[in-house]
Amino acid sequence: MLNYQPPTDPEQLARWLKVLAEPKRLRIFNLLMQGVQCNCELGDALQMAPNLISHHLAKLRDAGLVDVTRDTRDARWVYYAVNRAALEQLNAAFGAFFDPNRIQPRHPACGPQGNLIPPDAVTLAEP
Amino acid sequence: MLNYQPPTDPEQLARWLKVLAEPKRLRIFNLLMQGVQCNCELGDALQMAPNLISHHLAKLRDAGLVDVTRDTRDARWVYYAVNRAALEQLNAAFGAFFDPNRIQPRHPACGPQGNLIPPDAVTLAEP
DNA sequence: CTGATAGTTCAACATGCGTTGAATTATAGG
DNA sequence: CCTATAATTCAACGCATGTTGAACTATCAG
């Protein structure tokens, strides 16, 4: 079979989610989705200091979500881009894990197994 | 159009991700995907104290990801279930945001715009 | 009323992590 | 060499939040 990918284990998914759950990191990733970006370009767009950008990019890079490239003419410039393979795996893993059709309607094994009342009728924390 | 859902804004997606990025919370949610569960059942399965389960379930509930139901015969028992509508919205939002086809191949606007070398040839942090 | 059960709420603690400013590295140009 | 630039690394701070144990609610059974 072509393009086969082994199923992503939940722990890998959890690691990816932890990296992407940071708001500013998600915004950085969103900009990278729009094309290769250097540190300064991201900093200008998001009004963030370059060392902060570096910090967040390192997290994304450690998670394997983005790739790094240096300019051949002037090696001081570093370009970042989304790792497409990782993104495909992430997207597939998330879609499978949170697939609504995966929801099982089984009743709880404990408790008196009484009839359930609709969630609308429940007020738990609201005073 | 039937079943139309307005596009989920990125901030809502970030909020959901933040809630789901917690490993134990993700495991709780995974169990809920397998059917309605009460607090004690989740605690037994994950070897966690009931107050911790309560704490994490509250976060999932506040995020609108799970619904609460009380037993009609014995109101001491509380059952939790995945909110299917929220899950569908989450899944759609995530799939759209992290769609690999959304990646734009544009070149950086800053820097000398030099030719890019393949990421394989780059060693940044590894000594 | 009394005790047991299921669950939540509260207060205190611990720690992970985003943030900040300064120091450091690497490269380019003169 | 010497300075400027792009980016990273480091140390310190502060806050958010997961964890823990105890107190508290609510409900049911006798």
The portion of residues forming beta strands of chain A comes to: 5-15%
> Which class best fits the helix and strand makeup of chain A?
mainly alpha
Kindly report the name of the CATH homologous superfamily of chain A: Winged helix-like DNA-binding domain superfamily/Winged helix DNA-binding domain
| Uncertain residue ranges of chain A | 114-127
User: Helical amount among residues of chain A, as a percent range?
Assistant: 40-55%
End-to-end separation of chain A: 57 Å
**Largest interface: which pair?**
A-B, 66 and 66 residues
Write a structural description.
The structure is a homodimer of 127-residue chains. The first copy, chain A, is mainly alpha-helical. Chain A has a single domain (10-98), classed as Arc Repressor Mutant, subunit A (Orthogonal Bundle), CATH 1.10.10.10. Chain A contains five helices and three strands, in the order ααβααββα. Chains A and B meet through helix 1, helix 2, strand 1, strand 2 and strand 3 of A and helix 1, helix 2, strand 1, strand 2 and strand 3 of B. Chain A binds a DNA duplex (30 and 30 nucleotides) through residues 22, 24, 38-40, 49-56, 58, 74-78, 111, 124-125.
Which tags fit this structure?
127 residues, mainly alpha, homodimer, disordered C terminus, DNA-binding
Can you describe this structure in just a few lines?
Chain A has 127 residues and is mostly helical. Chain A has helices at residues 10-20, 23-33, 39-46, 50-62, 84-97, and strands at 37-38, 66-70, 78-82.
